[in-house]
Amino acid sequence: MKYFTELFTRLDQTTKTLVKVDALKEYFHKATDKDKLWTIALLSHRRPKRTINRNYIKKWAAEFSELPYWLFEESYHIAGDLAETIALILPSPESRTDNSLTYWIEYIQALGGLEENEKKAQLKSAWLSLDATERFVFNKLITGGFRMGVSQKLMVRALAKYTGIDESSLAHRLMGNWTPETTTFQDLILSEDANEDNSRPYPFYLAYALEDETESLGDTSLWFAERKWDGIRGQIIVREGELYVWSRGEELVTDKYPEYEVLKEKLPNGTVLDGEILPYKNGQPLPFNLLQTRIGRKNLTKGVLQKSPVIFKAYDVLEWQGEDIRQWPLEKRRTQLESLVGDVGDPVLHLSDLVIFNEWRQLAAERDRSREFFSEGIMLKRKDSTYKDGRKKGDWWKWKVDPLTIDAVMIYAMRGSGRRANLYTDYTFAVWDGEQLVPFTKAYSGLTDKEIGQVDRFVKKNTIDRFGPVRSVTPELVFEIAFEGINKSSRHKSGVALRFPRIKRWRHDKPKEEANTLEELHQLLEVYG
Amino acid sequence: MLLQFTEIGIHCPQADIYIDPWRPVDRALITHGHADHSRRGHKYYLCTEAAMPVIKYRLGQDINVETVKFGEVKTINGVKFSFHPAGHIIGSAQIRVEYKGEVWVASGDYKVAADGLTETFEPVKCHTFITESTFGLPIYKWKSQKDEFEEINNWWRTNQENGKTTVLTGYALGKAQRIIQNLDHSIGTVYTHGAVENVNEVIRNQGVDLKSTVRVTQDIPKENFKGNIVVATPSAIGSPWMKKFMPYSVGVASGWMSLRGARRRRAVDRGFVLSDHADWDELNTAVKATEAERVFVTHGYTNIFSQWLNEQGIESATVETQYEGELTEIGESTVKEEEEESS
Ligand SMILES: [Zn+2]
Ligand SMILES: [Zn+2]
């Protein structure tokens, strides 16, 4: 695992894209094909399954370190990262070995079939033959939370440099339902036609947020506008009599949405649609969190399907009669899509309607109505645009509605994890209910490093009580919290759950008494929930 | 109790002196010159000979200060005080307090491993020990100084090969001199930030054989820095002062750098684990070596270290103080290091 650990260290030590790509390229030169393939898998969200329960890992790490469990837990809370805590806390290795990345991944996979005490012995012998950095990498593999600060895109760029194959071909080859066990570097990456996989989706074209005025986009007649639907972006593929559903995370999720099964018969072979997997009932989209509860389920019971049924809101057609039509101008694809959805005539397949406008200010007014439609805002697409891959500027823009906001008082603080392990960065906020402060949301991000430092010092000086890693602090600081949506929730004391809450700004100007009330929060729920 | 913990600092009622007080008092015994231990405004200071020059440099030449040698006993109203090496920075001491056969040791800040510059830590037997706990968690374990400097020197060499200047930061007092002394000077010239060089001068003047350095000044042409190293204070990171070293690679030397999160949070290229405080194992070794029956735990992970000691059968309690550990090096201190303003 020497080269892989070296790669990890180099990636960890830099924030510069160029350096990262170089480090990856160099690694691809040095590593074996099998290790390369595993690295590509890890960097494209194809992690091996977990084979040991986290609680056992913690228990045994404490035991091998000869430390009481509470001390291990405290250390973990402070370091904020389990893999790192274990790497640091264990005694130095007894002997060093140098096995490949593949060796260790197979080692970890083999643990799955073992008895508890065998797992324990295997884990110990692994830990005691790796140095601190290798141990950290190994622990990331067993705990499953591998983030190396490299996006899939960046990895593909490095792979393109290494192989001489262009990036979009590689992105296409990397899609689909492969694992390093079912293919080889040669077949997956280097061979053009081998392993042709009918299920393969196209890379999604993603839009940037519009920051300039709409006027800067020029003549309105050049643009299509649609609602931005609040579900999960997906692709429906019908090829050779089979149906595949992909989500934007490039996950094959066909089984999760049996509602789409009918489209297998109704869509002609060689069709790929881009759209939104949208929870929908009685002619209305449902709140996104209903879909979330559904995603989390292993078994889709009748009840779940009744509570949060989905439709597919089609945005675009990417393949028609087996032909890749992404280079057609959008206007032409749109005509094709409209006739196709009409021909299918099934209530599960909806067309994402155009929002008609002549002037930008009309569109602005439509955007202001977004919440009436349970949508997040407006999508703008140039009529002559081709369907590109990945996030590209210029032809497509998302123009989101302004977030909802509320002023709240910070009452609890928790240490950050990872890069903010020494600082209190995660806060819980409350609103007034009479004389009482009722917590209603957690939020982080949105503060500058300097502000985080100030809040951190405030927390340390104004601690009332400690509950494990959480400190309750003197209620004093007021923050404006922004969020995208609000829903009823029985799990929260406040009765509401927020969507994407984050700190918008620190209200130095507001004393705590002037923060908003629970009643005001419930009024927002009435209007937007 | 022989020593008491008050709002002002650690107090010895019998002798009416304070150890490292944080508010002005008549008589202060000072363990070492860091800003959180050695403050302005006391009417009388007592410290080691070796600690005195820096304390005077920082608090003013006109302060009323008396010195003792390491091990020398000074008796005040029947209480015997003596200073013993703490291994933290040059001149830093643990203060031993004895009265009618009862012995306490207030250790200030300390580290056990030798660093090639500081007087090496000396365990002192006592009944009651007051220990810091800056790095009082088992995740903090230092590599040997030799290994750490091998990494630092290699980093410097790589930067040199890439035509870059190396900038390494640490406390102006203590850390910086330790870095200077342990760098491989055959690689290139060691330049210093003004705040570091001021301390260097004070230390050389007291007879310490510190390796040679060159102060960064306006008139040095930019090209001269290329491939060489600059030892600077943490406040230099991100300041316009750094411009003249471009292109550069910047590192931080601090115990906190053993955590990946802390390394990444600072916008620096490299973090090196180098601390003037004891790590987990050293804290435990030090406590054991004192054979103390009772241990008071100050600044750091006080609750955790104290609970651990209690479970080890050593009676222990925590004490609130205003001492700080290595916070300046990660930009967390609330006490401003004086020399940083003067630079
Ligand atoms: Zn100190
Ligand atoms: Zn201290």
CATH architecture of the largest domain in chain B: 4-Layer Sandwich
Provide the number of structural domains of chain A: 3
User: Structural class, judged by helices and strands of chain B?
Assistant: alpha/beta
Shape of chain A: globular
Query: How widely separated are the two ends of chain B?
Result: 43 Å
The proportion of residues in beta strands of chain A is 15-25%
Strand percentage of chain B? 15-25%
* CATH level-four homologous superfamily name of the largest domain in chain A: DNA ligase/mRNA capping enzyme
GO molecular function (chain B): exonuclease activity; ligase activity; RNA endonuclease activity
Protein name (chain B): Ligase-associated DNA damage response exonuclease
EC number (chain B): 3.1.-.-
Enzyme class (chain B): hydrolase
Which key terms come to mind for this protein?
heterodimer; A: alpha+beta; DNA ligase i, domain 1; OB fold (Dihydrolipoamide Acetyltransferase, E2P); 3 domains; B: 343 residues; alpha/beta; Metallo-beta-lactamase, Chain A; Rossmann fold; 7-stranded mixed beta sheet; 6-stranded mixed beta sheet; 8 helices; 19 strands; 24% strand; disordered C terminus; binds zinc ion
Describe it for me?
Chain B: InterPro entries: MBL, RibonucZ/Hydroxyglut_hydro, Xnuc_lig_assoc. Chain B: It is an enzyme of class 3 (hydrolase). The complex is a heterodimer of chains A (529) and B (343). By secondary structure, chain A is of the alpha+beta class. Chain A is built from 19 helices and 23 strands. Chain A has 3 domains: 2-143, DNA ligase, ATP-dependent, N-terminal domain (DNA ligase i, domain 1, Orthogonal Bundle), CATH 1.10.3260; 205-400, DNA ligase/mRNA capping enzyme (D-amino Acid Aminotransferase, Chain A, domain 1, 2-Layer Sandwich), CATH 3.30.470; 404-528, OB fold (Dihydrolipoamide Acetyltransferase, E2P). Helix content of chain A is 36%, strand content 24%. In chain A, the strands form 5 sheets. In chain A, strands 4, 5, 6, 7, 8, 9, 10 and 11 form an 8-stranded mixed beta sheet that branches. In chain A, strands 15, 16, 17, 18, 19, 20 and 23 form a 7-stranded antiparallel beta sheet that branches. Chain A has a 4-stranded mixed beta sheet with strand order 2-14-12-3, with helices on one face. In chain A, a hairpin with a 2-residue loop joins strand 9 and strand 10 (323-324). In chain A, helix 2 (17-30) packs across helix 10 and helix 5 packs across helix 6. Chain B is of the alpha/beta class and 343 residues long. Chain B has 2 domains: 4-140 and 276-342, Ribonuclease Z/Hydroxyacylglutathione hydrolase-like (Metallo-beta-lactamase, Chain A), CATH 3.60.15; 145-272, Rossmann fold, CATH 3.40.50. Chain B has 8 helices and 19 strands. Chain B has a 7-stranded mixed beta sheet with strand order 7-8-9-10-11-18-19, with helices on one face. A 6-stranded mixed beta sheet of chain B has the order 1-2-3-4-5-6, with no helix packed on it. In chain B, strands 14-13-15-12-16-17 form a 6-stranded parallel beta sheet. Classes of the chains: A alpha+beta (529), B alpha/beta (343). At the A-B interface, helix 5, helix 6 and helix 18 of A face helix 5 and helix 7 of B. Residues 32, 34, 37, 88, 109 of chain B line the site of one zinc ion.
